[in-house]
Structure formats: structure tokens, C-alpha cells
Amino acid sequence: MYPFIRMANEVRRFRKAAPLPLSGTHVSHHRCWPWDIDLWMELNNGRTLTLYDLGRIPMAQRIGLIAAIRRRGWGLTVAGSCVRYRRRIHTFERFEMRSRAVGADQRFLYLEQSIWKQSGECANHAMYRTAVTGPNGIVPPAEVAAEMGHPELPELPEHFKAWIAAEDKRPWPPMADA
């Protein structure tokens, strides 16, 4: 089940937090609860993606994206993600989540998030391709940034450019046989 109560708490906790610049990092702290684990008593990989919402939505609020979406009646969607898992998060373990926007291309906004153990080790890292949607489809990121009061979008890091290039070579729709 989606963590609605946790999300409401995060939005409430950061509702009066200082605004962030477009590429500012939102930091939040969480705990791995028994309903977040898998058979190996650690944070489930799918649940990790759900919990990343707990950082992404308050970050979007703090950079002005949520206000822009509400003003214009737009929507927000995830159009792709790439996750690297490196360390386990165990039941009841506390962790820090870092969330930030990294840039845009002609169609998408790109975000990154990471979860850090209390030891200072990065447990996992996710890259996201997101889109703001309107009645006519995807809203150009430059228009979104202007609505947010950010005249310039940061240039994408090289590893994001490589991911985008790899995604452009990926067939869609995928092969249906087998």
C-alpha cells in the first residue's frame, strides 16, 4: 500500500521549509519499517522506489514545482528511472534521503535521489526522467522553469546524457514474443 500517512507527514514537515534553488538538494530522514521489507528482512527494491516519493514531492514543493503545477492545472509523471543498489537497509534502520533536480532536455526534467546509511555509505541511487503534463501533452521544461521563476535550467551531468542516449537506442515497444 502507498505510504499516504508518511507522505502527508513529509509534506507537512517541510511546508514552511526554506525554498531551494532549482538544483538545490532536499534532505530528509526516514526509517525502514517492517512493512517496507522483503523476505530477507531488508528494504524491498520496489518499496525503495515508492519511498523515494517521500523525498521527491517535498523537493518539488521547495523548488516551486508543485506551486507551478497547481497554478497551471498541470500534472506530473515519471517517464523512466534507473536505480543502482549497493548496500542493504535493514528493518528499523534509519537512513537519509537526498533529492535534487539536475536539469532538463527538450521534453523531460531529470532528477536524482540517493539513500545514505548512518555510516555514510550510499545504499542506492536513482535517476529519474519526469514530465510535466498539460491538456496538450508534455509541457516543455523551459515553460515549466519559467513558471517556477527559474530563467535557466542547469546543464545535465555526463552520466545523465549517457543514460538518455542509451534510452534513445532502446526499442519501444519492447519485443512481444516469449
Mind sketching the topology for me?
Elements: H1 4-13, E1 26-31, H2 45-63, H3 65-72, E2 75-85, E3 94-104, E4 109-117, E5 122-134, E6 137-138, H4 141-148, H5 158-169
Antiparallel strand pairs: 1-3, 2-5, 3-4, 4-5, 5-6
Helix pairs in contact: 1-2, 3-4
Structure description:
- The protein has 178 residues and is of the alpha+beta class.
- The mean pLDDT is 95.
- It has a single domain (4-169), classed as Roll (Thiol Ester Dehydrase, Chain A), CATH 3.10.129.10.
- The chain has helices spanning 4-13, 45-63, 65-72, 141-148, 158-169; strands at residues 26-31, 75-85, 94-104, 109-117, 122-134, 137-138.
- It is built from five helices and six strands; from the N terminus they run αβααβββββαα.
- A hairpin with a 4-residue loop joins β3 (94-104) and β4.
- Strands 1, 2, 3, 4, 5 and 6 form a six-stranded antiparallel β-sheet that branches.
CATH architectural designation: Roll
Give the N-terminus to C-terminus distance in angstroms. 31 Å
Helix content: 25-40%
CATH superfamily: Hotdog Thioesterase
Count of individual beta strands: 6
Mean pLDDT: 95
Compute the CA-based radius of gyration.
Answer: 17 Å
CATH class: Alpha Beta
CATH topology: Thiol Ester Dehydrase, Chain A
Which shape, going by the Cα principal axes?
A: globular
Content-based structural category? alpha+beta
| Total number of distinct structural domains | 1
